[in-house]
Structure formats: C-alpha cells, structure tokens
Write a structure and sequence with these properties.
Elements lengths: L1 H8 L7 H6 L10 H7 L1 H10 L8 H10 L10 H22 L2
C-alpha cells in the first residue's frame, strides 16, 4: 500500500499536459497522468497484452493491486516489477512524443 500512496502523491507534481495547462505553462489540451499511463491507446494496448483483466478497476485500485502483486508473471518477473517498469517506459514514451511535437 505504501508504494501506491507514493505513486498517487506524485500525481500533483508530474508535469502532464493537464498540470502544465493548469499552471499556464503551455497552450495544450488536457492530458492526465492516468491517460498517459493507462488510458491512451498505446498504453491500453500494452496493458491488455501484459496484465490480467481482473486488475482493471478504478485507477487507484489498478495501481494498488498491481504494485502489491508479487506473483511471477509469464515473463518470468514479478507483476509489480513489470508494472513499474512499464509505467516508466510509457512515461518516457510520452516524454519523447511531447518533445517531438514542440
């Protein structure tokens, strides 16, 4: 649960488009952290191929259940490790896309 709380606490400081717009740092459409990590078409495609559908509840429940899951997945690593790694990869992908569009 502590890891999930840590992830949730960063939602206020990670510079998604939503935060940049709220702070008047750019003129862009809204893009939430959870859109970047879970709900955009690329992220959704990745998660649906990797994680069980049972873990697709609310965003909070989705994060908590995946961070607490220490079982070994079909890729030979723990689910929580793979979850963290994929979140990091998706975030970096979004960062690269944002830099290309500016």
């Amino acid at each position: 649960m502590e890891r999930a709380s840590t992830v949730m606490s960063f939602t206020e400081i990670i510079p998604t488009n939503m935060e940049r717009c709220r702070r008047h740092l750019c003129n862009c459409g809204l893009e939430t952290l959870f859109h970047v990590l879970r709900d955009c078409s690329v992220a959704s495609y990745v998660w649906k191929r990797i994680l069980s559908r049972e873990k697709w509840g609310s965003v909070h429940d989705w994060i908590v259940s995946n961070l607490q899951d220490t079982s070994i997945c079909s890729h030979g690593v723990t689910v929580n490790f793979l979850f963290g790694l994929l979140c990091w990869q998706l975030w970096n992908r979004n960062l690269l896309c944002s830099r290309r569009s500016t």
